[in-house]
Amino acid sequence: MAENAKKYKEQGFPVIKVKLGETKEKDAERIHLVREAIGYELPLRIDANQGWSFDTAVSVLQEIGKYNIQFCEQPMRYWDDDKLPELRKLSPVKIMADESVYDHHDAKRLIKAGACDYVNIKFSKSGGLLEAKKINEAIVIFKLNVKEYPDSWNVYDSLGEAYMNNGENKLAIENYEKSVQLNPDNTGGKNMLKKLNPK
User: Fold this and answer.
1) Secondary element (H or E) of residue 178
2) Which of 40, 63, 99, 110 is deepest in the core (most CB within 10 A)?
3) Going from the N-terminus, what domains does the chain have, and what CATH number goes with each?
C-alpha cells in the first residue's frame, strides 16, 4: 500500500485516500508506512468503510492523528450514528459521514447533532441532482455549530473551506485564522491561509 501511494504521488495525484477498517494495529501501521512513503505535504484521507466499533475508532484516530489526516470517512456502522458526536469530540481527525447520509433529512440530523465535520454527497445514493442540492443546502447548518461549539477549531476550519469553495475568500480567511488561533498545530489551516493570502 505504501509503495502504491508513493507511485501515485510521483504520478502527480493531488490527494491520497487509504481504505482502513481492520484492527488498530494494522490500520495504524498502514498510515505510518504511507506517511513515511509520501511525506507530510500531500493531503491524506482515510475511509474506514464502517469497519470500526466506537472504541476502535477512538483508539485508531487518536493514534494516527499525528499523521496530519484531512478526515476519516464513515468510521462506524450507520446504526451507531448516536455515538458520532462523542467520537468527534475525542478524535483529532475530522469526521465525514457517508453511508449515514442518504438524504437531506439525514444530513440535517447529523449536522444538528454535531456528529460530523463533512458529509459525502453521492448522486447515486442521494436520489439525483435535486436531492443532492438539498443536502448541499443542509450543510449551511454548519454555521449553527459556531454558536454551539465556539471553542471548536474544527468548526471554523470547515466554515473556512466552505467559504473558500464558494469564492468568499475574506470570510474564508477569517474562519481559518480563528481555527489556527484555537489550534496552533492546525497545519492544514495554516496552509490554506498561505494559499488564500500569499505575502
Assistant:
1) helix 169-182
2) 110
3) 2-141 (3.20.20.120), 150-199 (1.25.40.10)
